[in-house]
Amino acid sequence: MTTQANTKALSRRSALGLAGAAAGTVLAAPALAAEDKATIEWKMVTSWPKNLPGPGVTAQRICDRITLMSGGRLHVRLYAAGELVPALEVFDAVSSNTAHMGHTASFFWQGKLPAAVFFTAIPFGLLPLEHITWIEQGGGQALWDELYAPFNIKPVMAGNTGVQMGGWFKRDINSLEDLKGLKIRMPGLGGEVMRRLGATPVSLPPGELFQALQSGVIDATEFLGPWSDRAMGFQKVTKNYYAPGFHEPNGTGEALLSKTAFDGLPEDLQAIVLEACKAENGRALAESEWKNAANLIALQEVDGVTVKFYPDDVLDALRTTSAEVLDEFAAKDALSGKIYESFKAARAQLAPWSNVATRRFLSARDGKEA
């Protein structure tokens, strides 16, 4: 009888314990759910006018994708150039954690970090797929991280505007003499190459280019490709559109992540931020190729633009001078030299394959000799 009573008592205590545990679970669940759904607010600053075709669209898409993939736990609000900070102060804003994230292009930081130009494009450098391959497979990302680490910034590729055009010129370029005294907006090392050939490179943010070209502050400007360039309205000022974009054979956009903000995220949200940026590389590149092709036709057939090509002697001079600029650049400091050597090694490895696979195929497709 005692045993039976004890058994009943234990059963009652067990049942009460299970009920209590269940009640605790019910009470705790809303708190956990609330914690899971807490919204982290991030600010993204950009170097682009709002919704600019190409990089402006890419920046907004990254914000939207992060917010969606995180189920709203991480909400990223975009501030276009000038809304929170000027276009060319994005790096400093993210470095100081004034903004949690930025979308821009690395060549804007050439004055602060000369080697930054390699992570957008350099004259006669890598094509878009080759560039992505260097970053992801050839050690480029580790060097990029090392370059930006002292500034509390984690950089990642975040979109690509593809192969660039040579730019818009108010006068014809028929010889090297036509470069003398030319006031041209061309950032990165391409601007230095132009300077050595007699031109005057002018540094301007994207939002000021149309007015500068129209008013005569500059005689020529490069920007991106037909899609973005047409949206900027350059065809209203001049009808001379030059190729190739020797200075930028690639158009990698960069996302700058404040390490303070990024390291403070849970692991899953960190992965979402990185994957949203990575996914945009392929999406933006495909979009740019499609839109550039359509807008190149529209520029010619609707806007009366003439596509012209740098003469061979000009291209030869640009190529020779680019090699000189790059060699001098590599001697600036140990890290710049290391980045240049890595870049050259990637180009040397990839070029034979690109020649055999891509150049030969395109020539065969078009019925021309390579």
From TrEMBL:
Keywords: Metal-binding, Signal. Residues 1-33 form the signal peptide. Na(+) binds at F223. It holds the Pfam family DctP. GO terms for molecular function: metal ion binding. The keyword RNA-binding does not apply. It comes from the Bacteria. PANTHER family: EXTRACYTOPLASMIC SOLUTE RECEPTOR PROTEIN, PTHR33376. This is TRAP transporter substrate-binding protein.
